[in-house]
Amino acid sequence: MARELYERYPDFTEGRLAKIRSHVVSRQSCAVVARQLELGKELAVRGDDIPAEELDRLSRNRNVLAALLEAALAALFLEHGFEKVEQPIVKAFAGRIDYALTSHVDYKTELQEALARRGQAVNYSVLEVDGPPHDRRFTCAATIDGEQLGVGNGESKKAAEQEAAKATLQKLGVEVSATMPET
Hints:
Layout: H1 2-8, H2 14-24, H3 27-36, H4 39-46, H5 52-60, H6 62-80, H7 82-92, H8 94-102, H9 107-118, E1 122-130, E2 137-144, E3 147-154, H10 157-172
Antiparallel strand pairs: 1-2, 2-3
Helix pairs in contact: 2-8, 3-6, 4-5, 6-7, 9-10
């Protein structure tokens, strides 16, 4: 992805390319690509030794789908080599590249940069964790100078922190350009 982005967008700054690449290869994006490639359905069909209810849950779990995609890509790379798998992988992630180019994808970095200009810093804390271990929901807060300014919820601590950062940016009057991608 790094090479593809560098070659496609030679005029972009290193920071912008790094942000785009980070989003494109994130767990969330890998899960989206895995769903598009129907890897969850493949897992459901091939998981003979796993109880049906567990298999159904696993075949829809974002972290499992992302890991499954990463494992499949690694196997393809080992079997066929970089040159043969590079362009098909880029093609599979093309929608994630387009999304990252047109959408704001990292509220935590945006908040950190805005606060640095003001000489401030943000701290994140977990307020609540709900649900069984395989299906958690997190609630996190963003605190600046001892004041809780934003709260967010998500399927992971990171996602909840992103939502808390977004809420904080909005409260501070910093323009945010779009929502986080769907899982």
